[in-house]
């Protein structure tokens, strides 16, 4: 074979690898570090078994699914939220479908805004299980309202619940982790803890505040390498978040029955969260496209990100005023769904379609 032909073949391979990489990225549903950890890193099944895990906001959505997936790993579970009967329902399902016994699950009603109760709640967990290995700060509410129409009470509520409630509980658990020199503090932040999202000024602010808090706390804990802090930043995920979102007034419900089909499945988001926990990743982005791409743009090409955000914001506010909850009508989003359907080589984060010898091309 002549040198020229060999060079052409190599160039073709490189081009093919590039196209595969691009397709793969366009259908990626998490940042590349997390996908790598899912592929090559530590498995939740090896790392999280036997741990004592405290999940807030466990009565619905992401927290509920987390309880189900954790119960299959054989952890000891503490389920917290405000509604006792909902927690009982989640516990029953964990016992039916998981590997846990009655004694492995503690139901602990908790209101994140009632900060004076957090110390007692922490003592109750320690009394029951003797330790807390993982605290998952998941409980929270979102917002759907224009800033100009929103009462200051709504901003106060979002900060009290999403930010101060989470900080308060973390501060109660932290001395115990410091004493043991180990533990994981996992916080369900959001992609809007990084980027801007219209109609959610108060929610975005609370999540940005959490990101600043936990990044700084991590630096303060540098002398305790056994204590890890993970910020989980999901994009849209199927849950009750929009239904429960605050509006212009604290007492006014959204009344939204928004279409959730364009959002990421809760089970996939939670699986990736478990991978992040097992691998002690500092910050992870979990989202379908085009939202994942937006986070990358915000991080690496902010000028372009601002231009796109402003264009999308106009459309989103128009949609909101006509009673439609955002992006599933966006042409860009539809485009990405088409790419996803048409790229089997990059299927579901696995490499089933790629011959063993060619896998090096993908990373
Ligand atoms: N679903 C999404 O699209 C999405 C995206 C990014 C981030 N998140 C974050 O994920 C977390 C979970 O939300 P979700 O999507 O499962 O929504 P959800 O509404 O289904 O669940 C929220 C949970 O928080 C609990 N909660 C609310 N107020 C509370 C309080 N005062 N005290 C204690 N618990 C309280 C609720 O009872 C519920 O269990 C939130 O922090 C949210 O900000 C969600």
General description of the model:
This protein has about 375 residues and is of the alpha/beta class. It has a domain at about 30-45 and about 140-290: NAD(P)-binding Rossmann-like Domain (Rossmann fold, 3-Layer(aba) Sandwich), CATH 3.40.50.720. It is about 50% helix and about 10% strand. A seven-stranded parallel sheet has the order 3-2-1-4-5-6-7, with helices on both faces. Helix 7 links the parallel strand 4 (about 135) and strand 5 (about 185-190). The chain is globular and about 75 Å long. Mean pLDDT is about 90; it is low at about 340-363. Nicotinamide-adenine-dinucleotide binds near residues 110, 112 and 237. GO terms for molecular function: all-trans-retinol dehydrogenase (NADP+) activity; carbonyl reductase (NADPH) activity. This is Dehydrogenase/reductase 7. It comes from Bos indicus x Bos taurus.
